[in-house]
């Protein structure tokens, strides 16, 4: 289990992370979401001992990062955002180098090597120079170096950024497979990339956590309102006023006349679905309903609302 | 220990997989060879003194050039993030890097053994003890300068800047001995003790005093622990 307590990181005057708290449980796949510059990478870099916190602490299985950095590093596999690799080495040599530092040698190295080469699909490139690999293969190699010691905790900083759609699907599958037995933390600034993969989502904005929960919890807790679009024929401005006066718990956002018809946009609380009442009203007023289209809130909308400038307080 | 070896071997492979090591070895040997043979037959003495007097000068430039990339390059390419999130202690990282730079310099010195062979073939009454002491001094000097170079490489992510810092610090230690007449008498003793030349000349003369060994040992320790500090400080910025 990882527990982050009051984590603060300043770079000079820049406050990158402003006292965040959250926990990640064993066997969980956590999506760590935020716009560029929100503090995602900084948080992950502190968790992996690349940076030290200005204040606060990170506990990994009750060991804190300041006093037990080495033991914690042994338990974690980390794929940094920029995926720095020694480009002068061959793929095999690089994996051997990392394995040696992880204390994997001899027979167990051969097994670990065969396993990651198969898992990450590196078969064709084992004897190639790292600098000659394509972006997708470099990413797979980065992932291979992160999992060669079969870590209990895997931290991936924007693992699918810059990959083509096929590669994204492949990496996603791999992450899902790894997530069956490991704790995985994936950061991203693109929600769709990780929405389907993760168990829980933590959204960070401007150095603070603005949302934490499962996909459904976020959806339920955040926006209860559904937007409803109507297109009505044979209505007058005056009679349309009844939409707000005769139906409870709805608010009419706007009414626009278009080509003799009227477009109406309204919002309603999800517990008070007004569609039936609207239909009956239309019948009694002799309106012709050309369109009635409720738009459910997407997770994407929540994310946008939370991470737009100042949106956290809106 | 095992990690030092792993870091060390990786770095050596890096040197020898790129043209850098070979360019260094060739130029280093050419310069040494030129200055050695230039006067060797004129002076008509069976010793390597001319070699041992030129190598410290060549080291002023070559050692910082060899070591400039050791850590600066890792910072520049971002691979420092890979290595420092692996379970490697900062000390192991620094010592492994340092030893690889030093190894390249020792290999360069090994090439100069060809001059010793020449001496054995054409010379008479060779003072082998003086040659061994000469080599011993040069190796200590190379080890000291390498530590300075490693330190210089850790304070920046730019190799050229590391090179300039390295040369500057090395030259300061080299020149301290030459400015003794300009400083007050009470101070000159200390300066002399800090200067490289004082200890090197003792060893080259065949007087291997424990003070000289302690000097080189503590200087190497000082610069390597400074380097480790600098590598650690990066995290707190």
Q: Would you write up a description of this structure?
A:
The complex is a heterodimer of chains A (314) and B (237). In chain A, the strands form 3 sheets. A 6-stranded mixed beta sheet of chain A has the order 6-7-8-3-9-10, sandwiched between helices. Chain A has a 4-stranded antiparallel beta sheet with strand order 2-1-4-5, with helices on one face. Chain A has a 4-stranded antiparallel beta sheet with strand order 12-13-11-14, covered by helices on one side. The longest helix of chain A has 15 residues, at 165-179. Chain A is of the alpha/beta class and 314 residues long. Chain A is elongated and about 85 Å long. Chain A has 12 helices and 14 strands. Chain B is mostly helical and 237 residues long. The longest helix of chain B is centred in the middle third of the chain and has 27 residues, at 128-154. The mean pLDDT of chain B is 90.
Q: What is the H level of CATH, i.e. the homologous superfamily of the largest domain in chain A? A: P-loop containing nucleotide triphosphate hydrolases
**Based on DSSP secondary structure assignment, what is the total number of beta strands of chain A?**
14
- Tally of alpha and pi helices of chain B: 12
From N to C, what is the helix and strand string of chain A? EEEHEEHEHHHEHEHEEHEHHEEHEH
SSE pattern of chain B:
HHHHHHHHHHHH
For this structure, the CATH topology of the largest domain in chain A is: Rossmann fold
Structure annotation, total helices of chain A:
12
Into which percent range does the helicity of residues of chain B fall?
Answer: over 70%
- What oligomeric state best describes the polypeptide chains here? heterodimer
Strand content of chain A: 25-35%
What CATH architecture of the largest domain in chain A would you give?
3-Layer(aba) Sandwich
Shape of chain B: globular
Given helix and strand content, the structural type of chain B is mainly alpha
Shape of chain A: elongated
């Amino acid at each position: 289990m990882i527990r982050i307590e009051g984590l603060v990181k300043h770079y000079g005057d820049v406050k990158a992370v402003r006292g965040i708290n959250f926990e990640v449980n064993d066997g969980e796949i956590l999506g760590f979401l935020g716009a560029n510059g929100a503090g995602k990478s900084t948080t992950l870099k502190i968790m992996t001992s690349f940076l030290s916190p200005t204040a606060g602490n990170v506990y990994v299985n009750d060991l804190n990062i300041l006093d037990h950095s080495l033991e914690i590093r042994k338990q974690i596999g980390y794929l940094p955002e920029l995926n720095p690799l020694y480009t002068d080495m061959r793929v095999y040599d690089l994996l051997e180098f990392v394995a040696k530092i992880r204390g994997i040698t001899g027979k167990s190295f051969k097994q670990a090597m065969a396993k990651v080469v198969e898992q990450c699909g590196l078969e064709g490139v084992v004897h190639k120079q790292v600098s000659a690999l394509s972006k997708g293969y470099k990413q797979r190699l980065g992932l291979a170096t992160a999992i060669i010691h079969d870590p209990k905790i895997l931290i991936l900083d924007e693992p699918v950024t810059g990959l083509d759609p096929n590669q994204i699907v492949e990496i996603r599958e791999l992450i899902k497979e790894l997530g069956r037995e490991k704790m995985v933390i994936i950061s991203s600034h693109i929600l769709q990339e990780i929405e389907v993969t993760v168990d829980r989502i933590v959204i960070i904005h401007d150095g603070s956590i603005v949302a934490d929960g499962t996909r459904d919890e976020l959806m339920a807790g955040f926006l209860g309102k559904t937007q409803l679009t109507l297109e009505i024929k044979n209505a007058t401005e005056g009679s349309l006023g009844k939409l707000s006066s005769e139906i409870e718990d709805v608010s009419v956002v706007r009414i626009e006349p278009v080509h003799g018809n009227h477009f109406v946009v309204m919002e309603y609380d999800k517990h008070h679905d007004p569609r039936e009442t609207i239909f009956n009203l239309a019948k009694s007023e002799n309106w012709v309903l050309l369109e009635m289209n409720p738009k459910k809130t997407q997770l994407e909308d929540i994310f946008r609302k939370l991470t737009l400038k100042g949106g956290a307080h809106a | 220990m095992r990690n030092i070896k792993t870091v060390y071997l990786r770095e050596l492979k890096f040197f020898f997989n790129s043209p850098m090591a070979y360019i260094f070895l060739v130029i280093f040997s050419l310069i040494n060879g030129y200055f050695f043979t230039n006067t060797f037959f004129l002076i008509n003495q069976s010793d390597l003194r001319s070699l041992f007097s030129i190598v410290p000068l060549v080291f002023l430039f070559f050692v910082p050039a060899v070591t400039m990339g050791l850590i600066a390059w890792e910072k520049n390419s971002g691979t420092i993030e890979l290595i420092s999130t692996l379970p490697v202690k900062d000390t192991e990282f620094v010592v492994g890097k340092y030893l690889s730079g030093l190894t390249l310099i020792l290999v360069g010195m090994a090439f100069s053994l060809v001059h010793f062979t020449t001496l054995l073939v054409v010379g008479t009454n060779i003072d082998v003890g003086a040659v061994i002491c000469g080599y011993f001094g040069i190796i200590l000097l190379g080890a000291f300068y390498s530590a300075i170079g490693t330190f210089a490489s850790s304070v920046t992510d730019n190799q050229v800047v590391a090179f300039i810092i390295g040369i500057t610090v090395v030259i300061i230690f080299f020149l301290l001995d030459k400015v003794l007449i300009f400083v007050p008498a009470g101070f000159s003793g200390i300066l002399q003790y800090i200067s490289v030349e004082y200890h090197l000349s003792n060893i080259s003369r065949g007087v291997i005093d424990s003070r000289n060994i302690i000097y080189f040992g503590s200087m190497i320790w000082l610069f390597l622990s400074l380097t480790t500090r600098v590598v650690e400080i990066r995290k707190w910025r």
